[in-house]
Amino acid sequence: MNAEVNGKTFSIASQTYFFNLQHIMSSDHARLIRFLQEELAVSPTSIRLALQQCKQELGPLPMVLWQQGVLSLQQLEKTFDWMEMV
What we know:
The protein is mainly α. Helices cover 53% and strands 9% of the residues. It has four helices and two strands. The chain has helices spanning 27-38, 44-57, 61-67, 73-85, and strands at residues 2-5, 8-11. Strands 1-2 form a two-stranded antiparallel ribbon. α3 (61-67) packs antiparallel against α4. Residues 12-25 have low confidence and may be disordered.
């Protein structure tokens, strides 16, 4: 199944998740989600839960994923490196 954010499509596995994407509606955020899923194999469920926590704590998505133990420190660094290049 795919989801679309600002005309960008990203895969969310075989399940559809309806969650509030208003605070990540930029194309940069859509690309970040695609990177997390395709390059680091972060599950859609992990992203959905982290996005919910981001709304509550106003933290950046990669940091929340790291705090939740979804990303290793190496993956977090790789994500920040990627973010600097886009």
